[in-house]
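Ticket #4471: structure export looks truncated?
Reporter: QA, pipeline team
Priority: medium

Steps to reproduce: submit the single chain below to the structure queue and open the exported record.
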Amino acid sequence: MTIPSTPPDWARWARRRDDTRVKRQAAQGLPDFWIDFSWADLRFLTGQRPEAVAQGYLDALGKVQGRPFSSESAARQLRIFRDLGVFVAKADAALQALGEPLVKEAESQKRQRVVMFSGHRVDRPGRKPPRFPASREAAATEAIRRQVLREKEAANGAEIKGIAGAANGGDIIFHEVCRREGIPTEVLLALPATEYAAESVNDGGPAWTERFRKIVRETPPRVLGGSKELPSWVAGRKDYSIWNRNNLWTLNAALANVHADVTLIALFDGKRGDGPGGTYDMIERAREAHVNVVAIDPAKDE
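Actual output as written to the record:
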């Protein structure tokens, strides 16, 4: 039987298909109560009155007749509509008819909060124009601390954690601030620690190197790859480097947390930067994923 493309034809096709299935199940002495739930679902989507929708689910429940059954499958779909603000009155009526809670206990718990960080490295001596000069470290640290405390307050007692790389400048400051405020962090490195330090830490001077070592001693990092060489399936992409890939990895590591609100704090001067895969790239990717972005200009006081 060919599946039609238009909604009215689909409804007629579904009815013919289900009529055939009902007859086959009845001939075998096995009435299929899921067909009745399918019709209840159709009434939910097309009906206007919540009480009529509820009756459809009550009728379906009456066909179960003591057989093993869980209404959670139907309830889960109804809660999706309810959470989206679509057909809320009908969803509430249907859930009550099924004897299912409007909100699952796990869903009513406080949401986890995940705070990502991406930011400029401290300027090398003589950089022109300056972006994050060493003289701005104290001001940048205080600005990052204020934003971290705002996120902690927004968590309202729920679990909160930070995620960042460990380059000199903003990354290291973020980890240090979080730890002082009792917030655990994950350290994600694009390269193994020694190679990463050579690329992104050591040129800031021995003090930054020691701070980096302390962070990775206290929290063993997760490492993206063993070298700067890209996998063959992305090696040919234009203006793409391990740092772009690292940004994607970091973003997805944050978004993979279930029931989490994600914020990106970015120490960012508003310019594209020196090359691909920097803070500008991370901000763009975060916004595409509808992540809340808070930008701090290292050259300005908040």
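Status: closed, not a bug. The export was complete when the record was re-opened. Leaving a note from the reviewer for reference: The chain has a mean pLDDT of 84.
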